[in-house]
Known about the structure:
By secondary structure, the chain is α+β, with helices and mostly antiparallel strands. It has helices at about 15-20, 35-45, 50-55, 95, 115-120; strands at about 10, 25, 30-35, 55-60, 65, 70, 75, 80, 85, 120-125.
Amino acid sequence: MITKPNFNFSFNPNKCDECGGKCCIGSSGYVWVNSEEILNISNTLDITVNKLKIDYLKKYGSKYSIKEVKTKNNYECIFFDSGRCNIYESRPVQCKSFPFWNDFKDKDEDELDYLKDECIGVDFKS
Length: 126
Ligand code: SF4
Ligand code: SF4
């Protein structure tokens, strides 16, 4: 179990296989990538940064987010494939740090119902 200061829950990463990647699908959102992460992902995919930006990223002002794909009932990250992340080793910090996001700091269990529903690795008891 992973714990972090100022978070009222622990996280069990062993649950990720069972879950199948619910944090990579769902309602539309943003997965922000900075310039270092963009370079890392382009290296992982063995494509140029320019091609990565055109094919896989969407620009919002001066920032880039990973594109989503619309499915029947949901959206999913363009790198999500058959329950796995295609760029796992170079996935951005936003993905690596989930569920320990600043928005979830110092929040009680009843304030994070939706997080418990989304992530079966989150545990408020231990
Ligand atoms: S939702 Fe939680 S348990 Fe599921 S893959 Fe994401 S981090 Fe792992
Ligand atoms: S980059 Fe990988 S871990 Fe992050 S949302 Fe996309 S598929 Fe999931």
